[in-house]
Amino acid sequence: MEQNVFFLPHEGLKLAELAEFLGAELANSDHADVIVRSVAPIHRARAGDVCYILSRRNRDELATCEASAVICDKAVRDLVPPHIPIILSSNPHAAFAMAGGLFYPAALRPVVFSSGENEIAPSAVIDPSAKLEKGVIVEPMAVIGAHAEIGEGTRIGAHSIIGPNVKIGRDCSIAAGASVLCALVGNGVIIHNGARIGQDGFGYAPGPRGMIKIVQIGRVIIQDNVEIGANTTIDRGAMDDTVIGEGTKIDNQVQIGHNVQIGRHCAIVAQVGIAGSTKIGNGVQIGGQVGIKGHVTIGDGVQIAAKSGIMTDLAAGGQYGGIPARPLKDYLREAAQQVSKSKLRGRNPGGKEND
Fold it and tell me: What is the pLDDT of residue 79?
């Protein structure tokens, strides 16, 4: 495989050190000094790589595996060839993610355009009333408005815009081309390229001469350790606030309307649209291209299948799918029935398929 010049391998770590970092167990102490430098999928892992396996369905991929270690749980350790060291973990997926972050910390944040540290690019435009703590990096052509406040260790990407009175916490990454307006942002937040935060929401009242714009005077509140994907848009509240809860992860190209309240540690996949004043609980998982009607409430721990349409409140802990969304088991049963009927329509009365 060609050398990856964008994310260079780690200088190397002993398996014993990696296992300790992961809170995992090295199956054979004889392998403690084996050096690993990178992560890779099972089928193309080579010496120096760490990979992982979750189930017996992936057993065939081990045939070409030459990794220096495999992360797995005890239930599948017998699948791993005897010459490959094993790191035992009760949660191999999470352990592999931690290993990747350890080897490639730079890849956990948006790509930077300036290699310097503790610097303000000469071409950046910063209002004299803005307050930047020590260690803030501002890349070329970024604009920071009046009375904005930015915490220590935060990086403001090239061509990004931080609006007047915006407050951004510490150790945040605002990527190139993003705009953050009318917002209060916590610590450890990542906002990717081209995201739009805090523009006015979509609100109009029909009048005798057409649509009358409703003022949007709320804010966007983004709590700690939230990640917001590229080209995602989050509208500020109309009169209340739009709120994104701690630890929530939002994919690319998601639209979040005004006054939406999203709980903690949710996962929202690409191209989801959430209409105004929706309330979403904690730990909710929303699949790609889901549409959610405004003014509905989604309970804690709900899981929503991709391409679903949410028209009513959803009770906590449920799995839902379809348009309109209903319990996932009902939706899958109905879908199977439709497929069965379609196959029957493709047959002649005698049972032979049509040409």
Answer: 93
Instruction: Identify the active-site residue in 43, 83, 258, 295.
Output: 258
- Reference 222, options 253, 198, 193; nearest CA is 198
CA 122 → CA 138, 157, 292, 339, distances in Å? 9, 14, 44, 62
In the annotation, is 258 catalytic? Answer: yes
Residue 336, pLDDT score: 87
Answer yes or no: are the C-beta atoms of 47 and 30 closer than 8 Å: no
Neighbours of 211 (CB within 10 A): 10
User: What class is the 13-108 domain?
Assistant: alpha beta
Domain boundaries, the chain: 13-108, 125-330
If we measure between CA atoms, which residue out of 244, 252, 282 comes closest to residue 269? 252
Query: Is there a contact between 164 and 143 (Cβ–Cβ < 8 Å)?
Result: no
HEC letters along 203-262? CEEEECCEEEECCCCCCEEECCCCEECCCCEECCCCCCCEEECCCCEECCCCEECCCCEE
Topology, domain 125-330: UDP N-Acetylglucosamine Acyltransferase; domain 1 (2.160.10)
CB 190 within 8 A of CB 109: yes
Mean pLDDT by 10 residues, the chain (355 residues): 72 96 96 95 93 90 92 94 95 96 91 70 96 95 98 96 98 97 98 97 92 94 98 96 98 98 98 97 98 97 97 96 93 86 65 50
3-class SS of residue 188: coil
- Rounded-to-integer distance, Cα 128 and Cα 130, Å: 6
pLDDT of residue 186: 98
